[in-house]
Amino acid sequence: MKDFSLWLKLAAVFQLITFVIHALTFFIKPAPTNDTETQIFDLMRNYKFDFGGGFYRSMGDLTTGLSVCFCLVCLLGGLMNWYLLRKGVGSDVMSGIININLVVFAACFVDMCIFTFLPPIILTALILIFLILARISISSLNGNP
Description:
This protein has about 140 residues and is mainly alpha-helical. It has helices spanning about 5-25, 35-45, 60-85, 90-115, 120-140, and strands spanning about 50, 55-60.
């Protein structure tokens, strides 16, 4: 388990896979199956809250905004990790980058567990597991506990 780059590559791959899968959901429009769902869909899409300062947003707008942010975080993490690995950045810098990734994706994982459903929870958990393995590997490489 001395080679952290394998684990970090796997984390980057799963960050990019998560980005692609989540981005595809923006093109899928679920259809309501009964009157209650039709009413909920209509309210989510059309009822606008007054957030002050001229901002009127629906709950659907807020959900889309958060989903885009999740996509972008995964894309940024995956591309940054892949780029730094390709450039052969030293293990001391990579250790810091992995630590930053761990903080962000651990918080993301907790958020997913509380507010979402199984597919994003599983994908985020896999990212976090590979990042933890990369951190353990780089610590043993650097001789740190």
